[in-house]
Design goal:
The chain is of the alpha/beta class. It is built from ten helices and eight strands. The radius of gyration is 31 Å and the shape is extended.
Length: 295
């Protein structure tokens, strides 16, 4: 008994999906259900129906929010910034030629000391301009991260808490433990004093100030006070930070000289300010001299 061969390609397959002729493919129609689902997801996540359009920019924005998570995993209830996420980003920023500058936005309560110092060291060692902006708060280990930038801003209502380092969990009460804490504290003090205008002695005094904080020692710096102490460069917001970063980028990457025109008299006198015209004039002069020398 021979096999039955079906030549009609319009017959639907057993799966219920109609066959498509490869010689005349039909364009897929936009899925309205998927579009509505994406809009609802945007409304749920961002509180708005339409997402802002993606803009190609040479400035990368890095946000450090919540608690900086180090070697120990924090509770899922805590909003954290993981250092293993930031470090690869900073390496990629350094290698990407399209990125000319970095804007760091901080609203953090602090966190792991070694993770914070690692991020600070990477920011300070970037070859590209870095501007930091403290919004809300840049407390504890967030202080050296903010000062690691080439230029730092703080919002008028933002705060920064400077206090001695603390350990959580079991602590062995031996002299070596206190020596270790003192060394870690010196690392923070030395880094902040080197990357800002505040001196080591003044920063230590702010750290161990009594009466500023309830149940603890330390100092709360609010907006202008952080600038007066020399920890932050200037009080400002997002617009100020972007404008400063753009100016630093322009210094590192000067734009090509605009086209200009010179008169014949300026070319003859050699007083033309256009570098391109001057190069042409020098080339012509060298040719004339060479011809005169042959004569």
């Amino acid at each position: 008994m021979g096999k039955l061969i079906v030549k009609d390609q319009n017959i639907p397959n057993p799966g219920g999906v109609p066959r498509i002729n490869p010689k005349n493919p039909k364009k897929a129609k936009p899925n309205k259900a998927a579009t509505i689902k994406n809009q609802l997801q945007s409304l749920k996540q961002l509180g708005q129906n339409n997402l802002p359009p993606k803009v190609e920019s040479d400035i990368h924005t890095l946000t450090i929010v919540g608690q900086i998570e180090g070697h120990a995993v924090l509770s899922p209830k805590n909003k954290t910034t993981k250092y293993e996420h930031l470090i690869p980003q900073l390496v990629a920023i350094e290698q990407n030629e399209k990125i000319k500058g970095l804007l760091v936005i901080l609203n953090t309560v602090g966190g792991d000391i070694e993770a914070g110092l690692a991020i600070s060291e990477m920011l300070s060692s970037l070859s590209k301009p870095v501007v930091s902006l403290v919004l809300g708060g840049g407390h504890s280990i967030g202080v050296p991260i903010a000062t690691a930038a080439d230029y730092s801003f703080i919002a008028e209502t933002a705060t920064m808490i400077v206090h001695p380092i603390r350990l959580t969990g079991m602590v062995i009460g031996v002299p070596q433990t206190y020596d270790y804490l003192d060394k870690m504290q010196e690392r923070i003090i030395r880094f902040v004093s080197n990357s800002s205008k505040i001196s080591e002695d003044r920063f230590k005094k702010l750290m161990f100030e009594t009466g500023e904080l309830v149940r603890d020692v330390g100092t709360v710096l609010v907006g202008e006070q952080a600038v007066k102490e020399g920890v932050i460069n200037e009080v400002g917001g997002l617009g100020h930070a972007m404008k400063k970063l753009r100016s630093l980028i322009d210094v590192d990457n000067p734009k090509a000289e605009k086209d200009c025109e010179c008169t014949a008299q300026e070319l003859e006198e050699g007083s033309c300010d256009c570098s391109s015209e001057n190069e042409v004039l020098k080339a012509r002069q060298s040719v004339i001299e060479a011809l005169e020398g042959d004569d």
